[in-house]
C-alpha cells in the first residue's frame, strides 16, 4: 500500500492552523530554531516570532483545561448558522 499521500499530509501541511501547529511543534518539541521552522513551514522570521509570542500568551493565560488554539471540539465545529456569532470588535456596538 502506498502511504506517500498520507505522509505528505503530515510532513507538508497546507492548511494554516496545521502549519502553525507543526512550526510550533518543531521549535518546542524538536528543538529547532525559529528561523529554520519559519523557512520550512512558509512563515517569515517575524511572523514566526509573533506566532511564538501569541502561543506563549495563550498558554500562560489559560488554565490547564482550556481548549487547544489549534483544534476544535465537535460541538464547536457546528455550522456557523447554528453558532452564535460574536460581534466584530472593530465596529462599535449599536446601542438602540
User: What is the N-to-C order of secondary-structure elements (H for helix, E for strand)?
Assistant: HHHH
**What is the chains' assembly state?**
single chain
Tally of extended strands?
Answer: 0
Rg (CA only): 17 Å
Indicate the mean pLDDT: 79
The separation of the N and C termini measures 63 Å
The low-pLDDT segments are 80-89
Helical percentage: 40-55%
Strand proportion: under 5%
Tell me the overall shape: globular
Helix-strand layout with pairing:
Blueprint lengths: L3 H8 L4 H13 L5 H7 L4 H17 L35
What does it look like?
By secondary structure, this protein is mostly helical. It has a domain at 4-64. Helices cover 47% and strands 0% of the residues. It contains four helices and no strands. It starts with a helix and ends in a 35-residue tail after the last helix. Residues 80-89 have low confidence and may be disordered.
List its traits.
96 residues, mainly alpha, globular
Summarize the structure.
The protein is mainly α and about 100 residues long.
Amino acid at each position: 500500500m502506498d502511504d506517500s499521500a498520507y505522509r505528505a499530509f503530515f510532513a507538508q501541511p497546507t492548511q494554516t492552523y496545521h502549519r502553525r501547529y507543526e512550526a510550533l511543534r518543531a521549535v518546542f518539541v524538536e528543538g529547532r530554531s525559529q528561523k529554520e521552522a519559519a523557512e520550512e513551514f512558509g512563515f517569515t522570521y517575524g511572523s514566526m516570532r509573533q506566532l511564538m509570542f501569541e502561543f506563549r500568551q495563550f498558554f500562560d493565560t489559560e488554565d490547564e483545561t482550556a481548549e487547544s488554539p489549534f483544534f476544535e471540539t465537535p460541538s464547536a465545529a457546528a455550522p456557523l448558522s447554528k453558532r452564535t456569532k460574536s460581534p466584530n470588535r472593530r465596529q462599535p456596538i449599536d446601542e438602540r
